[in-house]
Structures are given as structure tokens and as C-alpha cells.
Amino acid sequence: MASASSSTAVSGGSSTVDLETLRRNRVLSSKLYFDVPPSKVPLIYSSSYDIAFLGMEKLHPFDSSKWGRICRFLITDGVLEKNRIVEPLEASKDDLLVVHSESYLSSLKRSVQVAIIIEVPPVALLPNFLVQQKVLYPFRKQVGGTILAAKLAKERGWAINVGGGFHHCSAEKGGGFCAYADISLCIRYAFIRLNISRVMIIDLDAHQGNGHETDFSHDSRVYILDMYNPEIYPYDFGARSYIDQKVEVGSGIKTDEYLTQLDKALEVAGRTFDPELIVYNAGTDILDGDPLGKLKVSPDGVVSRDEKVFKFAKEKNIPLVMLTSGGYMRSSARVIADSLINLSKKCLIDLNSSSVKM
């Protein structure tokens, strides 16, 4: 995701141990992992994802009704039944503390701080209880969806959270419409609850994923492939040094060149790292005409991109979590729906049966 404008540090060995023990206990006691019946498909969404607060959400270019429209397209097109969608739980404060600090979460109790993060200045004038209800609650539901997606992916081979991908948020800092670090949380939970020890992040949002890069800056268990436009937000040069495989694509790159670069990047990633889980941040702000991404990839190019990543995972038999992340045109929802329909046609996912495992 992006801007409209241009692990907690602990000192002392025993303190580090105490922090890890506390983190582990919080993960093990969390309710975010729950058993999903076979009648459901591993596609996660809640109507609570969609953000609407007095029309102020329209002051940011992100389409905050995108998530619901994706599902409506899939249902209207007859490829998904509404009662087969998985609804996640809201991430609690204890859940969020697995990555975030008390001080960071406390800062979100100030409306002005949330307004800065989501880049909608008038939100600073609203009572915080309203900001919590209308802005942060939808985000926390999406965080719950991203965390649950890893469990479902391990069980079913793939899972899609029709939301999430808040890759600009790290443990101590939000920004670019990202208030919680759902990718970092998802991976921390997978380490502890799924006994996963190696995770690959494939971040194909047009913007650099500086949040998860900061959080896993010195963690060799996480391999980051980030393909982004270096000429746009967040200009986080420090976080760039933590990217294992950096693929910089300049403004105006077109579909064929983009997909060629992606093919090369996936080939290198496949030779370099052997993950047990892939977290795929599938932003649609690479689309031609997106006001923030500034790339020129066609809708068919986005469909091909997603297919390439899912094929990469399937050929290696690696569970994959897909997050929808950024996308700043109304057309994004239709493109995402079309991409999921294509994945289903190519038998890379199955939106009608939950019995197929990659």
C-alpha cells in the first residue's frame, strides 16, 4: 500500500528471553487461529473490512470499499458462494503486542496520530472512540484475516485474505495507510503455531515494503523479494538495505518488461531460498493509470503476474498466503476478481471446493 503524499529493541539477555516468552505465550493463547470447516473455502473476508466514516475516507486515494466489491464480483459471477467465505476474528491488543509495543498501540489512542498514518487530516478532529470504531476496527479485522490465512494455507495449500498487506507498518511506526503490521504478525504466528522456520515474502505492490523489511532486518528465517518503484513513497533507504532480492522498476515500465523482470526474480528466489510458507503481497497499484504506483502494467498483466506467483508456489509445493494490499483506482476490485477467477480456471485455487491441496 502507499502514501498519498509523496522488533522492539530490548536490552539485556534476560529481557530478550522474557520478551520472547511473552510473545510465545500471547501467540499460543490467541483466538485468531480457529478450525475452519471443510464447507468453507480458504478465502477470508468480513464486511467489517470496508471503511466508511462520514465520507472522509474519500480524502485518501485508496478505495476503502475495494474489499467488499471484490467479493461481490466473485459472487455475482457465480464462482463463489457467500456462505463459503471465512470470516476472521478481530486482532486483540494482546494479539497486536506480539509485534507492536505498548507505546505504539497507545499512540493510536490519539486521533491526530491515526490521521497522520492514514493521511486524512480531518480524522484528527474526530473523537478517538469513533476513529477506533470506523478506522482501526476494520484494520484489526483484516489483521486477524492475514494471521488466520497462514494456518489455512498450511492446511489447504493456499489462502487469500481479501484485504491486508499493510506493508508500510513496522513494530514501532505506521504510515502510508498502514496502522498495523499484519505481515510481520502473520509470520510471527506461523513461526510459533505452525512450526514454520523459513518464510519468503514476495512483495509485488508498486511501493517498497519498508515495514516488514524493518521488522525482519536481521532475521535469516525471512527472505524478502521486493519488486517496487524506487521513485515513489516511502523512500526508505535504510529498509532497502534489508531486502534480500531487490528489483527496482522505474515509473512507466510496461507489462512485458515487468513480467520478464518478475520471471527472472522468481527464478533467482527459487534457487536461493527454500521456504515453508510464502506471503504474497499482491498490490494492484502497478496498474497503468494508478496515480501513486506510476507503472504501466495492464489488467491482463496483473492477472499473469498473480498466476506466475501461484505457479511458482505450486511447483515447489509451498503453501501461499495472498494479500491484496495497495491499489488506488476503482478498477482494482474488478481486476483482482478477474485474477482470482483466472487462478480458479487454471486450477491453482479452487473457490468451489476446499478439498484440493497444492
TrEMBL record:
Would the keyword Hydrolase be found if you checked this record's keyword annotation?
A: yes
Q: What does this protein do?
A: Responsible for the deacetylation of lysine residues on the N-terminal part of the core histones (H2A, H2B, H3 and H4). Histone deacetylation gives a tag for epigenetic repression and plays an important role in transcriptional regulation, cell cycle progression and developmental events. Histone deacetylases act via the formation of large multiprotein complexes.
A single BP term in Gene Ontology: epigenetic regulation of gene expression
Give the catalytic activity: N(6)-acetyl-L-lysyl-[histone] + H2O = L-lysyl-[histone] + acetate
Places the protein is found? Nucleus
Q: Which UniProt keywords apply?
A: Chromatin regulator, Hydrolase, Nucleus, Repressor, Transcription, Transcription regulation
Task: Tell me which PANTHER family the record gives.
Answer: HISTONE DEACETYLASE 11, HISTONE DEACETYLASE HDAC1-RELATED
List all membrane-crossing ranges: none
Q: Pinpoint the Histone deacetylase domain residues.
A: 60-340
Entry's Gene Ontology cellular component terms:
histone deacetylase complex
SUPFAM superfamilies assigned? Arginase/deacetylase (SSF52768)
The family database entries (InterPro entries) matched by this protein are listed as:
HDAC_classIV, HDACs, His_deacetylse_dom, His_deacetylse_dom_sf, Ureohydrolase_dom_sf
Q: Which Pfam families match?
A: Hist_deacetyl
Q: What is its EC number?
A: 3.5.1.98
Cofactor(s) it depends on: Zn(2+)
GO MF assignments: histone deacetylase activity, hydrolytic mechanism
The protein depicted here goes by the name histone deacetylase
